[in-house]
Amino acid sequence: MRSQENELERLRHQNQTNPSRSNARAIERQEDIISEIQDFMNTLRRIANYNLTPELNDGISLTIAPLYELMSFRDARRYWHELSEGKHTWSSVSQQLRRE
Description:
By secondary structure, this protein is mostly helical. The chain folds into two domains: 1-49; 51-100, no CATH class. It has helices spanning 2-17, 21-48, 60-64, 74-84, 92-99. Helix 1 (2-17) runs antiparallel to helix 2 (21-48). The mean pLDDT is 92. Residues 1-27 are annotated as: Disordered.
């Protein structure tokens, strides 16, 4: 993240000394990259704050369900919503979520 922020500062400085449409677009792209990284980090923190311990006996679908926002595994979202609704009470991940 720090390197991306440094790059943004470099681009801004470059734009101050040599303003151009190209430099402005480069700054905008860099700001978008930083925004995406921040969103990703926020998602990781939110998931980490669940403090879930994976249990392989739950099966892969339930084990990865909390990561649904980060993966293209389509069933992960469905299983996450089911877990959030209190289903799969037999699973370790469901029991951990209910403790909170």
